Amino acid sequence: MTPNKKFGFTTTILHSDRQSPIEHGSLHKPIHTSVAFGYRDARQLASVFQGREPGYRYGRQGNPTVSALEEKITRMEDGLQTICFATGMAAIGAIAQALLREGDHVVSSAYLFGNTNSLWQTVNSQGPRVTMVDATDVANVEAALTPQTRIVFVETIANPRTQVVDLARIGALCRERGILYVVDNTMTSPYLFRPKEVGAGLVVNALTKSIAGHGIALGGSLTDTGVYDWSAYPNIAENYRRYPTQQWGMAQVRAKALRDFGASLAPEAAHHIAVGAETMALRIERECANALALARMLEADDRVQAVHYPGLAGHPQHQLSAKLFRAFGGLFSFELKPHIDCFDFLDRLKIAILASNLGDTRTLVIPVAHTIFYEMGPERRAGMGIAESLIRVSVGIEDTDDLLEDFRQALAG
Ligand SMILES: *Cc1c(COP(=O)(O)O)cnc(C)c1O
Fold first, then answer.
1. Interhelix angle for 114-124 vs 88-99, to 10°?
2. Domain-located, residue 1
3. C-alpha 43 to ligand 1 mean position (Å)
4. Residue 363 and residue 235 share a domain
5. 3-state helix/strand/coil string of 257-313
6. Residues 10-25: pLDDT tens digits?
7. Predicted pLDDT of residue 6
8. Is residue 4 assigned to a domain?
9. What is the CATH number of the domain that holds 355?
10. Does residue 156 line the site of ligand 1, with CB under 6 A?
11. Apex CA 401: angle with CA 400 and CA 404, to 5°?
């Protein structure tokens, strides 16, 4: 069965576990909690540890429940191979740990999830150089490239201001220069967009968000799409060059990041995420429809200063987003007119919950400048287009009318 070709998105996820034999014909992959594994004999033990035969060595490097989830994500992204991590940040951190050395250079979009922005500051102080650019203009990305540039990193829809970069043109630029193109697909998820189609070599997903959808487990993943030619990458150690070229990158990431730094996904979390993933297409359809309805209502209200959502015709990258994505996502942000206090407004909401996290089934709201983007200070916030009164809304699957009414009464209050 090659479900990506024959079956739709949800059918593929639902039937993915059964593609390999499971004890008692169980329909779900069981939660394997064992840290160590058994072997037929000493020779097989040695052969598994030397990578000459498939098998598990120790729970930090791999686990059957986690592998089943990795397989699901590989199918979702139409990729070659996936490695899961304890969190989305661990997956992004693994890129720095395994693939960057002193003197290497990264070009990153400046419009980023706050913790990724912070991670690049850390990396920048440890040897590799990171340049952040306004990547909505491809010319800025091109101008920042140097002969040492190993990686270009972008998000699909930037969290929280929803800027969208020309993903395909940046992909073409990376391909031309032999640069590894890394796309964080968290805000779109593989249901709305497959970065492989624009030439991404590695795809990041924070599984915590839309893929799990329930907000009860943290997780992250890196998927190798098979698009990037690892023989062009200078930092692959001799040890990993003994595998077929297509596997070099992930072999090094699994050893140098997952094994050596140890941010492994727990099997219990992998199971929670896998169960959540079964309904992701249904949830995301509803979230996108709710987000569009709510964004349109707010845009038409004269107490609202601005609404940032790629689904609105006035969004600077509306056309581009319509071309790239199946729908416009479940997240938008907005600013109230200056005479309305954003804290008072938030306190009047009855359904939307004051919380961080996104891609949850419940609608979550957060004043970003005062919380998740507080540490970076007003100047850097302004540089990312984040107004002090900006409210981020991660739209859930509630009944549309209930959500609209909640925001309506909070505005009126
Ligand atoms: C949440 C998020 C991450 C990090 O994921 P965690 O699981 O919270 O570590 C990375 N990128 C984006 C775009 C995110 O929204």
1. 20
2. no
3. 42
4. no
5. HHHHHCCCCCHHHHHHHHHHHCCHHHHHHHHHHHHHHHHHHHHCCCCEEEEECCCCC
6. 999 999 988 888 888 8
7. 80
8. no
9. 3.90.1150.10
10. no
11. 90
How many other CB atoms are there within 10 angstroms of residue 61's CB atom?
15
Q: What is the pLDDT of residue 1?
A: 39
What sign results for the dihedral spanned by CA atoms 58, 81, 207, 334? Answer: positive
Give the span between the Cα atoms of 149 and 130, in whole angstroms: 9
Atom of ligand 1 nearest to the CA of 90: 9
Contact indicator for 287, 130 with CB cutoff of 8 Å: no
Distance, in Å, from the CA atom of 369 to the CA atom of 381, rounded to the nearest integer, reads: 7
In the reported structure, the alpha carbon of residue 49 is separated from the centroid of ligand 1 by a whole-number distance in angstroms of 32
User: Would you say the CB of residue 87 lies under 6 angstroms from ligand 1?
Assistant: yes
CB of 150 sitting under 6 A from ligand 1: no
Return d(Cα 54, Cα 74) in angstroms, integer: 18
Q: Which protein residue's CA is at the shortest distance from atom 2 of ligand 1? A: 206
Q: Are the CB atoms for 208 and 61 separated by under 8 Å?
A: no
Which CATH number does the domain housing residue 57 bear?
3.40.640.10
pLDDT of residue 5: 64
* Burial grade of 69 (CB within 10 A; 0-12, 13-18, 19 or more): buried
In the reported structure, the alpha carbon of residue 31 is separated from the centroid of ligand 1 by a whole-number distance in angstroms of: 24
State the distance from the centre of ligand 1 to the C-alpha of 186, rounded, in angstroms. 7
| pTM of the full structure | 0.96
For residue 2, being part of any structural domain is answered with: no
Sign of CA dihedral 133, 305, 393, 8: negative
- What would the two tokens of residue 323 be? 């071309």
Asked if residue 205 has its Cβ within 6 Å of ligand 1, the reply is no
CA of 159 from ligand 1 middle (Å) equals: 9
> Which of 254, 277, 300 marks a domain boundary?
277
Tokens 């997956």, residue located:
91
Q: What is the mean pLDDT of each run of 10 residues along the chain (413 residues)?
A: 70 89 88 97 96 94 97 97 98 98 97 93 96 97 98 96 97 98 98 98 98 97 98 95 95 97 98 98 98 98 97 98 98 96 96 96 96 88 88 98 98 93
